[in-house]
Amino acid sequence: MADIVGIDLGTTNSLCAIFRDGQPVLIPNAHGEFLTPSIVGILDDDQVLVGAAARELRVTRPERCQSTFKRHMGSDRKLKIGDKTFTAVDLSSLVLRSLKVDAEAFLGRRVKEAVITVPAYFNDLQRKATRRAGELAGLRVRRIINEPTAAALTYGFHDRKSDKKLFIIDLGGGTFDVTLLEVFEGSLEIISTAGESFLGGEDFTDRLAATVLKGQGLELEAAEMKSPLLVSRLRQECELAKRRLLDAEEAVIRLPNSRGLIDEGAKTVTLTRQEFATVVQPLLDRVKGPIGKTLRDGRCEPADLEDVILVGGATRMPAMRKFVADYFQREPLCRFNPDEVVALGAAVQAALIADDAAVEDMVMTDVCPFTLGVEVGKEFAMRHMDGYFMPIIHRNTTIPVSCERDVVTVSQNQQEMTIRVYQGEGRRVQDNLLLGQVKVTGIPNGPAGQHVSIRFTYDVNGILEVEAFLPPNGKKFTTVIKNNAQDLTEDEVEATLARMRELKFYPRDDVVNQRLLLFAEKAVGEVSQYDRESLEEALDLFEVSMASGDRVSFASAREGLLMVLASLGVHYDGDVGATDAEG
Ligand code: ADP
Ligand code: MG
């Protein structure tokens, strides 16, 4: 049986899992960690770094890195690294490629197929973009599944005999999703889902950074333009503070200087847990909307739920837990690590696709998270008004689904019609998202009011196909939704592939050392002047021996550098194999 890996391609962190010996297991990366930061960096010699080493590079050379690009999936936005430009698809493909290489090292075989998760609220363009990123990374994408659904699969897999309603809340780095589902004797039925694609833990960090800067009389955006190094380092400090507040009542944030360095005399700001909660209250308020909508759509009250499950790193924040506990009047459940549960569920989905005996009693059905339809005109007295939205597939319909509705011609002998396809809940199309259009030609002459049938097919991957038929002769117009760069011609695909193939990857065996090197380089500017020399000496030796290829002297140089760092009280956590290297 071919291996199908399950991949959680996250805004902040990505993970890869595989189903083996009857259960899902996580695959470690080159650092021995399960979480690979979704960060891509390019070194001066043009070698590509992905993950923890790129995260180190981002602190000192933000212009050589890109992160949180998942937020731009499905758009044409160009993202620069040095003198190269990428799309979010390109960068995601580099992350996927890195996970694929790790999986191959772990399994000792080639990996060619994957199940990739996406936020439930990802639209058609974002899903197609994700599939394209997989293809660019050399993976056949067997299925795209919703992240909360994947989380539900992990819980469902381990608790098959139960019969209950569950509510899943997934707050990751950049997206927020909630899902209501029912488990009944091994079958998992998703009832309703909602979310926001621009709300996540990164926004909490940003709000904190903005507040700290404001205290210094600075605006976040202006500061970012003027001193990008200061802001990138401050973000890292705020991220640490946010995490420290998990078990501390207060956290100290050190202010970097304009070169992004935190030296001995750095100013500090102290933040209490309560102050943090106040700062992020506006974000917590936004969490309520999708929760209420999902419960209403599923005709469910908080009291009908058996469990409320938290997923995503940002649900670790005490402020978020408290909010959930107050809303649902019970303590949320977190049986599995919130960072890992989505990837594990993707591996369970892979087992379902591969007909693994361990999941033969499991069935899962998902829903379409938003309403899909077309633009129509309406007649009012003598006036024709365009711009109204006619739903064809209503939100939270179980998928796969195929629905058909007719539209009519508006004038005599009208021979052509353009059908614009939208997603959203607005009554008017201007409030919804345009997904693409189909042109219908060859409508036979006749009076106004001739019918054209439109069929929407929404598949299990959440990808929409649109067909238009002319009922008299049955002529069919299939529609590939064309909107922007997502739908490339074959030549363009080839050109992108060639461009990506040209990139040189930093050798996997050495990324652990590259990460240490970048970390130590940052420390050089921060230790006191008296310690700087000894650190530089150890660092020079390490760098030279890294290049020399002499394993023995290299090992001792590495040991030496780690010892010097430790003696200076600089804590390097890249060597402990922790999954949470930022904390
Ligand atoms: P994604 O799926 O979007 O990649 P994750 O589920 O990995 O995101 O969550 C990442 C987010 O969780 C980040 O914004 C990070 O700041 C936040 N996070 C992780 N651990 C903690 C913690 N202990 N306290 C607060 N926030 C955390
Ligand atoms: Mg996630």
Number of strands: 28
CATH class category of the largest domain: Alpha Beta
Q: Could you name the CATH topology of the largest domain?
A: Nucleotidyltransferase, domain 5
Shape: globular
- CATH homologous superfamily identity of the largest domain: ATPase, nucleotide binding domain
- Judged by helices, strands and strand pairing, the structural class is alpha+beta
CATH architecture of the largest domain: 2-Layer Sandwich
Helix-residue proportion:
25-40%
- Unreliable stretches covering 5 or more consecutive residues: 576-583
Query: Number of DSSP helices?
Result: 15
| Main β sheet profile | 6 strands, mixed
Number of domains: 4
N/C terminus separation:
39 Å
Quote the beta fraction. 25-35%
Bound molecules: adenosine-5'-diphosphate, magnesium ion
Verbal overview:
- The structure is a single chain.
- The chain is globular and about 90 Å long.
- Helix 4 crosses helix 11 (341-353), helix 5 (201-215) crosses helix 7 and helix 14 (529-548) packs antiparallel against helix 15 (551-567).
- A hairpin with a 3-residue loop joins strand 1 and strand 2 (13-20).
- The chain has 15 helices and 28 strands.
- The chain folds into 4 domains: 4-199 and 284-367, ATPase, nucleotide binding domain (Nucleotidyltransferase, domain 5); 201-281, Actin, Chain A, domain 4 (Alpha-Beta Complex), CATH 3.90.640.10; 370-501, Substrate Binding Domain Of DNAk, Chain A, domain 1 (Sandwich); 511-567, no CATH class.
- It starts with a strand and ends in a 16-residue tail after the last helix.
- With 583 residues, it is α+β, with helices and mostly antiparallel strands.
- Bound molecules: adenosine-5'-diphosphate and magnesium ion.
- Adenosine-5'-diphosphate binds next to helix 5 and helix 7.
